[in-house]
Task: structure prediction
Amino acid sequence: MKSQHQVVLSIGSNQGNRLENIENCINLIHKEVGTVLKVSRLYETPAWGFESDAFYNCALVLHSTASAQKILTQILKVEKQLGRIRLNQQGYQSRIIDVDMIAFDDEIIESEKLTIPHPLMQDRNFVLLPMQDLKLAWKHPVFQKSISELIAVTPDDSICTVVQDLKSPLSEIPLEKFNYIAFEGNIGAGKTTLVNKVAEDFNAKTVLERFADNPFLPKFYKDQNRYAFPLEMSFLADRYQQLSDDLAQFDLFKDFIVADYHIFKSLIFAKITLAEDEYRLYRNLFDIIYKEMPKPDLYVYLYQNTGRLLENIKKRGRTYEQNITSEYLDKINIGYLEYIKSQIDLNVLIIDVSDRDFVKRHEDYIFVLDEIQKKLNSK
Result:
């Protein structure tokens, strides 16, 4: 199930350097509002509804977890940053930048400040033609028509001319060149949330750990000595089976895969939880399995300090996790960092996300993508 909304915006400019205004607007929206997935071509369009210089127009589709009302507020802020002054006069005016929300998923929204889908979209070629470029499987929820069907019946006969292609911000971050990325982190670091977001934005296949199904986990947190060995063995067996099954379905040379764990985490946790003799036995079994496992092209470790981890664990409210101690989390962090130092043939990226919240703050998510892009550029 998708966790993000699909939002379509229409952008126009007919004052100053129109191309620069639109490019700056796209970049600001990508950094501050939501992940810009696709951008249409740039069109030149005669002013609609008033006498003025011609407009440059485009459309884009973005992902965001925010509500439509929140996105509207963010869009108005972007317009203001770019120098738009909204005047309280009637009718149409020239403007340095104009951003309209056209669609929000398949929803119909009617409020004092917002009507979705945009009530005039079907009468405007400068909205419909760029939107058609986005190639979305979207139907107007009121008219039950696709974009091409709306274009066929629109009363607007104004000529919209293609000027040039526009760059999509995501095309600048070609994560899929890695093929297989594993995101790791301590308990509560937010790796699964991040993996789901990356998968939605980059159309990737996911491999997600099935920890919630492990019957030994709640027992382990109550009595660690008794349940450590069966817990670690069941995790190892499950991870091996899942990775073998899931990765076998995918083409590691063609598909883009993101995982919220790498099987080596089994050894890190086992070293902390098992008695010495149990660990030796476990290590022998692990070494046999590890040789067979494909290694990720990029291993991203999301480092978070212990204070933040404890806050996150408390917030997500899993009953069996509430007694996890800071000492236990410190040991896991040390285990990961020692493992990373010992790896010579693994492509590792450590990102400190202690002061970041990539769930609530979009700019923090973009920060993570930028860090991965830097790694990609340094390959």
